[in-house]
Structures are given as structure tokens and as C-alpha cells.
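Encode chain A's predicted structure.
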Amino acid sequence: MTTATTTVIGARRAGQLAARRNVYVRQEDLPLWEKAQRYARLDDGASLSTIIARSLGQYVAEREAVELGMERIVVDVKGVRKAFVGRWLVGPDEINRQGDEGDIVVAVATTKRGQLAAFWFGISRPDIGGLEVFPDLEAMDHVLRNQYDLIDSDFVALVRSRLDSSYVQELDI
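Encoded structure for chain A:
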């Protein structure tokens, strides 16, 4: 028979205990729970409640992204790994562009917040690369074409064609 332990999770706000929830931990998961408590204390004294809420937030964000047809995208920008939730419109395996510095890969994704993330890197030059986020296609076109000379009108037309009717620019007004 599996035994369980109950831990009451709560947070203090202005001297009051916030909503209380019971978390039941299976006996075989107790070592994991105890490690999490130890690490939480090392994490600037964070409570286990904070760690659980953060994990639940990540879980919900991932599930919502899947519902929107999105995924966690991880890119390497000059040796630094960066991640965001989005959906490739033009993937990094689709288009190579011949530039002055050699072959350059340019990719574009839509993000969960409705922005466009442009990612590029040099195939034979690891010192060439970047990731920039743009509020809309016109801003991306202006910067990537006029400032970096990375894209042309055909590339912009391809991105535009892949922005389906579910793409809506959300305004925070």
C-alpha cells in the first residue's frame, strides 16, 4: 500500500494566510520533495509554495502553447542558448542566404504574445548571429532588410503567407 504525506501550502500576504491547498505526496516521491525543499531554501530562501506556483505557471504556459500549436523554441545565439514559446513560420532548416560573410540562415517564428522573433546565424561563422523580436512584420522587414541586409521581399512575402488568420496583433491599450 502506498502511503502519502500531506503538506499544506500557503503564503502570507499582509499578515494573512493566502488560499490554502493540500498537496499529497506519494511515499516514493518523498526524496524528491525533500530535495526540492532543500533547493528552495538555497534559492534566496524561496518557499516551496513559490517553487510549486512557478512550476504550475510553466506547466500551464506549456499546455496553452500546445493548444495554440506552439512549442518551446531553443536557439543558440553566438554560444548563448535562448528560449521562448512560439511557432516557426520559416524554420532554420528552410532557407540559407548567401551573404558577404558566407551562408547565413534566417528563421522567423511567431511568439505566444503575437510578436515575431527573427533568428539568424552564420553556418561557417559562429560569431555571426542574432535574435530580435519585432511587434509586426513591417518592423521586422525594416530592420532585417535595411539595417542588416538579411532578407529580401520574397522572404517577407513567405512570412506574410504563413501568418494565418489566427495571427492577430494584440494591443495593450
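Residues 70-162 form one domain.
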